[in-house]
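Hello,

Our lab assistant flagged a job as stuck in the queue for most of the afternoon. It eventually completed. Since we weren't sure the result was trustworthy after the delay, we are filing this so someone can double-check. Below is the sequence as submitted and the structure that was eventually returned. Let us know if re-running is recommended.
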Amino acid sequence: MRALTFHSTILNHTFDLHVYLPPNYSRLYTYHLAITQDGRDYFQLGRIGRKMETALEEGAEDTIVIGIPYPSVEQRRYWYHPDSEGSTAYIQFLVKELLPFLEDTYKTPNLAQGRTLIGDSLGASISLLAALFYPYSFSRVMMHSPFVNDTVLQAVRQTDSWHSFDIYHTIGTEETNVETTDGNIQDFLSPNRDLYQLLQKKGSRYYYHEFEGGHFWKYWEKDLPDAIRFMFEI
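-- returned structure --
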Protein backbone atom coordinates (compact mmCIF):
# COMPACT_ATOMS: atom_id res chain seq x y z
CA MET A 1 0.00 0.00 0.00
CA ARG A 2 1.50 3.29 -1.07
CA ALA A 3 0.74 6.70 -2.54
CA LEU A 4 1.58 7.93 -6.03
CA THR A 5 1.35 11.58 -7.09
CA PHE A 6 0.05 12.40 -10.55
CA HIS A 7 -0.86 15.74 -12.12
CA SER A 8 -3.62 15.90 -14.72
CA THR A 9 -3.35 18.68 -17.26
CA ILE A 10 -6.82 17.91 -18.58
CA LEU A 11 -8.45 18.27 -15.17
CA ASN A 12 -5.92 20.78 -13.80
CA HIS A 13 -5.64 18.74 -10.62
CA THR A 14 -2.92 16.86 -8.78
CA PHE A 15 -3.97 13.48 -7.41
CA ASP A 16 -2.44 11.52 -4.56
CA LEU A 17 -3.36 8.11 -5.93
CA HIS A 18 -3.84 5.13 -3.63
CA VAL A 19 -1.86 2.10 -4.80
CA TYR A 20 -2.04 -1.57 -3.87
CA LEU A 21 0.84 -3.73 -5.10
CA PRO A 22 0.72 -7.53 -4.79
CA PRO A 23 3.14 -9.33 -2.47
CA ASN A 24 6.57 -9.84 -4.01
CA TYR A 25 5.84 -7.19 -6.63
CA SER A 26 8.56 -6.97 -9.27
CA ARG A 27 8.94 -4.86 -12.41
CA LEU A 28 9.98 -8.04 -14.18
CA TYR A 29 6.41 -9.34 -14.17
CA THR A 30 3.18 -8.21 -15.81
CA TYR A 31 0.15 -7.37 -13.67
CA HIS A 32 -3.56 -6.89 -14.26
CA LEU A 33 -4.59 -3.28 -13.64
CA ALA A 34 -7.71 -2.26 -11.68
CA ILE A 35 -8.64 1.43 -11.41
CA THR A 36 -11.21 2.53 -8.85
CA GLN A 37 -13.15 5.76 -8.90
CA ASP A 38 -13.98 6.92 -5.36
CA GLY A 39 -10.53 5.55 -4.63
CA ARG A 40 -10.24 6.65 -1.02
CA ASP A 41 -13.58 5.00 -0.25
CA TYR A 42 -12.63 1.71 -1.86
CA PHE A 43 -9.32 1.64 -0.01
CA GLN A 44 -10.50 2.86 3.40
CA LEU A 45 -14.15 1.80 3.60
CA GLY A 46 -14.04 -1.14 1.22
CA ARG A 47 -10.60 -2.35 2.37
CA ILE A 48 -9.94 -3.43 -1.18
CA GLY A 49 -6.26 -4.10 -0.49
CA ARG A 50 -7.02 -6.76 2.11
CA LYS A 51 -9.69 -8.28 -0.10
CA MET A 52 -7.28 -8.48 -3.03
CA GLU A 53 -4.79 -10.24 -0.75
CA THR A 54 -7.41 -12.89 0.03
CA ALA A 55 -8.35 -13.21 -3.65
CA LEU A 56 -4.71 -13.74 -4.62
CA GLU A 57 -4.47 -16.52 -2.04
CA GLU A 58 -7.56 -18.08 -3.65
CA GLY A 59 -6.03 -18.00 -7.12
CA ALA A 60 -6.73 -14.56 -8.61
CA GLU A 61 -4.22 -13.18 -11.08
CA ASP A 62 -1.70 -10.71 -9.70
CA THR A 63 -3.34 -7.30 -9.80
CA ILE A 64 -2.30 -3.71 -9.13
CA VAL A 65 -5.14 -1.59 -7.77
CA ILE A 66 -5.13 2.18 -8.26
CA GLY A 67 -7.55 4.37 -6.29
CA ILE A 68 -8.42 7.81 -7.65
CA PRO A 69 -9.62 10.09 -4.82
CA TYR A 70 -11.98 12.99 -5.43
CA PRO A 71 -11.19 16.38 -3.83
CA SER A 72 -14.78 17.27 -2.86
CA VAL A 73 -18.35 16.04 -3.20
CA GLU A 74 -19.09 18.84 -5.66
CA GLN A 75 -16.08 18.03 -7.83
CA ARG A 76 -16.97 14.34 -7.73
CA ARG A 77 -20.41 15.09 -9.12
CA TYR A 78 -18.94 17.37 -11.80
CA TRP A 79 -16.49 14.68 -12.95
CA TYR A 80 -18.70 11.60 -12.61
CA HIS A 81 -22.29 12.57 -13.43
CA PRO A 82 -23.31 11.32 -16.90
CA ASP A 83 -24.95 14.64 -17.78
CA SER A 84 -22.19 16.89 -16.44
CA GLU A 85 -19.87 18.82 -18.77
CA GLY A 86 -16.99 17.56 -16.66
CA SER A 87 -17.61 13.86 -17.35
CA THR A 88 -16.14 14.01 -20.86
CA ALA A 89 -12.95 15.60 -19.53
CA TYR A 90 -12.73 13.00 -16.75
CA ILE A 91 -12.98 10.11 -19.22
CA GLN A 92 -10.31 11.78 -21.37
CA PHE A 93 -8.12 12.01 -18.28
CA LEU A 94 -8.56 8.28 -17.61
CA VAL A 95 -7.71 7.20 -21.15
CA LYS A 96 -5.24 9.77 -22.41
CA GLU A 97 -3.34 10.71 -19.25
CA LEU A 98 -3.71 8.28 -16.36
CA LEU A 99 -3.56 5.02 -18.30
CA PRO A 100 -0.34 5.90 -20.20
CA PHE A 101 1.22 7.10 -16.93
CA LEU A 102 0.38 3.84 -15.15
CA GLU A 103 1.68 1.79 -18.08
CA ASP A 104 4.96 3.69 -17.89
CA THR A 105 5.13 3.17 -14.12
CA TYR A 106 4.10 -0.48 -13.95
CA LYS A 107 4.28 -3.42 -16.33
CA THR A 108 0.70 -4.15 -17.37
CA PRO A 109 -0.82 -5.87 -20.42
CA ASN A 110 -1.62 -3.52 -23.29
CA LEU A 111 -5.06 -5.08 -23.65
CA ALA A 112 -8.54 -4.01 -22.63
CA GLN A 113 -9.06 -7.40 -20.95
CA GLY A 114 -6.09 -6.64 -18.72
CA ARG A 115 -7.81 -3.62 -17.16
CA THR A 116 -10.80 -3.27 -14.83
CA LEU A 117 -12.70 -0.10 -13.95
CA ILE A 118 -14.42 -0.06 -10.55
CA GLY A 119 -16.85 2.36 -8.93
CA ASP A 120 -19.89 2.88 -6.74
CA SER A 121 -22.91 5.10 -7.48
CA LEU A 122 -21.75 7.91 -9.82
CA GLY A 123 -18.29 6.32 -9.82
CA ALA A 124 -19.84 3.18 -11.28
CA SER A 125 -21.67 5.22 -13.92
CA ILE A 126 -18.52 6.95 -15.17
CA SER A 127 -16.66 3.61 -15.16
CA LEU A 128 -19.27 2.04 -17.42
CA LEU A 129 -19.36 5.05 -19.74
CA ALA A 130 -15.56 5.13 -20.03
CA ALA A 131 -15.55 1.47 -21.09
CA LEU A 132 -18.43 1.99 -23.54
CA PHE A 133 -16.68 4.94 -25.18
CA TYR A 134 -13.20 3.33 -25.12
CA PRO A 135 -13.71 -0.44 -25.35
CA TYR A 136 -10.18 -0.95 -26.68
CA SER A 137 -8.84 0.54 -23.45
CA PHE A 138 -11.20 -1.04 -20.88
CA SER A 139 -13.50 -4.04 -21.17
CA ARG A 140 -14.02 -5.09 -17.53
CA VAL A 141 -16.32 -3.12 -15.22
CA MET A 142 -17.29 -3.64 -11.58
CA MET A 143 -20.33 -1.57 -10.55
CA HIS A 144 -21.80 -1.13 -7.08
CA SER A 145 -25.21 0.58 -7.15
CA PRO A 146 -24.58 2.69 -10.25
CA PHE A 147 -26.52 5.87 -10.90
CA VAL A 148 -28.53 5.06 -14.04
CA ASN A 149 -30.45 7.59 -16.12
CA ASP A 150 -31.50 7.93 -19.77
CA THR A 151 -27.98 9.03 -20.74
CA VAL A 152 -26.48 5.80 -19.39
CA LEU A 153 -29.19 3.60 -20.90
CA GLN A 154 -28.87 5.32 -24.28
CA ALA A 155 -25.09 4.85 -24.26
CA VAL A 156 -25.60 1.11 -23.78
CA ARG A 157 -28.22 0.97 -26.56
CA GLN A 158 -26.03 2.84 -29.02
CA THR A 159 -23.02 0.52 -28.93
CA ASP A 160 -22.32 -3.19 -29.18
CA SER A 161 -18.93 -2.93 -27.48
CA TRP A 162 -20.23 -4.21 -24.14
CA HIS A 163 -21.07 -7.57 -25.71
CA SER A 164 -17.44 -8.57 -25.13
CA PHE A 165 -17.18 -7.07 -21.63
CA ASP A 166 -16.91 -8.71 -18.23
CA ILE A 167 -19.41 -6.85 -16.01
CA TYR A 168 -20.26 -7.21 -12.32
CA HIS A 169 -23.40 -5.25 -11.37
CA THR A 170 -25.07 -5.09 -7.99
CA ILE A 171 -27.85 -2.95 -6.47
CA GLY A 172 -29.71 -2.93 -3.15
CA THR A 173 -33.40 -3.78 -2.87
CA GLU A 174 -33.85 -0.81 -0.50
CA GLU A 175 -32.38 1.73 -2.92
CA THR A 176 -35.74 3.20 -3.89
CA ASN A 177 -35.37 6.52 -2.06
CA VAL A 178 -31.71 7.48 -2.22
CA GLU A 179 -30.62 10.97 -1.18
CA THR A 180 -28.19 12.13 -3.85
CA THR A 181 -25.33 14.60 -3.43
CA ASP A 182 -27.42 17.40 -4.97
CA GLY A 183 -30.03 16.99 -2.23
CA ASN A 184 -32.67 15.20 -4.28
CA ILE A 185 -34.33 11.83 -3.60
CA GLN A 186 -34.14 9.28 -6.41
CA ASP A 187 -35.09 5.70 -7.13
CA PHE A 188 -31.89 3.79 -8.01
CA LEU A 189 -33.42 0.31 -8.07
CA SER A 190 -35.85 0.64 -11.00
CA PRO A 191 -33.33 2.18 -13.45
CA ASN A 192 -30.78 -0.48 -12.48
CA ARG A 193 -33.33 -3.14 -13.35
CA ASP A 194 -33.76 -1.42 -16.72
CA LEU A 195 -29.98 -1.54 -17.20
CA TYR A 196 -30.03 -5.22 -16.29
CA GLN A 197 -32.65 -5.89 -18.99
CA LEU A 198 -30.29 -4.41 -21.58
CA LEU A 199 -27.04 -5.97 -20.39
CA GLN A 200 -28.35 -9.50 -19.87
CA LYS A 201 -29.59 -9.89 -23.44
CA LYS A 202 -26.49 -11.24 -25.14
CA GLY A 203 -22.78 -11.47 -25.39
CA SER A 204 -21.09 -10.19 -22.28
CA ARG A 205 -19.91 -12.19 -19.29
CA TYR A 206 -22.35 -10.49 -16.97
CA TYR A 207 -23.37 -11.00 -13.35
CA TYR A 208 -26.27 -9.10 -11.77
CA HIS A 209 -27.19 -9.29 -8.11
CA GLU A 210 -29.69 -7.56 -5.82
CA PHE A 211 -28.61 -7.48 -2.18
CA GLU A 212 -30.79 -6.73 0.82
CA GLY A 213 -29.79 -3.23 1.84
CA GLY A 214 -29.45 0.40 0.88
CA HIS A 215 -27.07 2.84 -0.76
CA PHE A 216 -24.30 2.53 1.82
CA TRP A 217 -20.72 1.36 2.03
CA LYS A 218 -21.48 -1.20 4.73
CA TYR A 219 -23.29 -3.23 2.06
CA TRP A 220 -20.80 -2.63 -0.77
CA GLU A 221 -17.91 -3.61 1.51
CA LYS A 222 -19.58 -6.94 2.26
CA ASP A 223 -20.24 -7.51 -1.45
CA LEU A 224 -16.72 -6.67 -2.60
CA PRO A 225 -15.21 -10.17 -2.09
CA ASP A 226 -17.89 -11.69 -4.35
CA ALA A 227 -17.29 -8.99 -6.93
CA ILE A 228 -13.56 -9.69 -6.95
CA ARG A 229 -14.13 -13.44 -7.19
CA PHE A 230 -16.36 -12.98 -10.22
CA MET A 231 -14.10 -10.50 -11.95
CA PHE A 232 -11.03 -12.70 -11.54
CA GLU A 233 -12.86 -16.00 -12.15
CA ILE A 234 -12.02 -17.63 -8.84
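-- support follow-up --
The delay was a queue issue, not a problem with the job. The result is valid. The mean pLDDT is 95. The beta strands are 2-8, 13-20, 32-36, 63-67, 115-120, 140-144, 166-172, 178-179, 185-186, 205-211.
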